Structures are given as C-alpha cells and as structure tokens.
Task: inverse folding
C-alpha cells in the first residue's frame, strides 16, 4: 500500500470534516468529485482521503497531480 500526503493536510484532531472516497477506475469522475468538495469548504477545516483500489486508468495520477492537498492511498489491489 502506498500513501502520499501533502504537507498542507491537517491532522485529524484539527479537522471538522473528513471526506473519504473509495474509488476504482474513476478517472472520468474523480476530478469533478474533488472539485465539488473543494467548492463546499464553507469555512470548515476539511481533510480528503482518496483510497484507490488499484485502478488501471489515470485516477491516481489525476488525484496526485491536480489535488496535492488530498491524501491518496493506493492499495495495490481491488479490495
């Protein structure tokens, strides 16, 4: 399992909302999903985790390149 995390990600004790997205081959949807979360912050301190279940498309790359504030966990298998 591989995890990447930006230094901007807040620790769990400082977070109002945790968004957890489990995904598999969601390259067509993940960007709009994460943009929607970004747009709804409304003053809340959020953390977002994307759990990628060994996608064979560009899901993980989209998350890591376009959303550095998101914690990406790549499981290495479709769990």
Result:
């Amino acid at each position: 399992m591989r995890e990447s995390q930006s230094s901007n990600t807040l620790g769990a004790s400082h977070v109002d909302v945790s968004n957890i997205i489990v995904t598999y081959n969601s390259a067509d949807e993940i960007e709009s999903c994460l943009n929607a979360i970004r747009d709804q912050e409304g003053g809340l301190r959020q953390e977002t985790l994307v759990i990628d279940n060994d996608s064979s498309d560009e899901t993980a790359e989209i998350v890591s390149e376009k959303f550095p504030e998101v914690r990406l966990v790549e499981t290495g298998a479709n769990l």
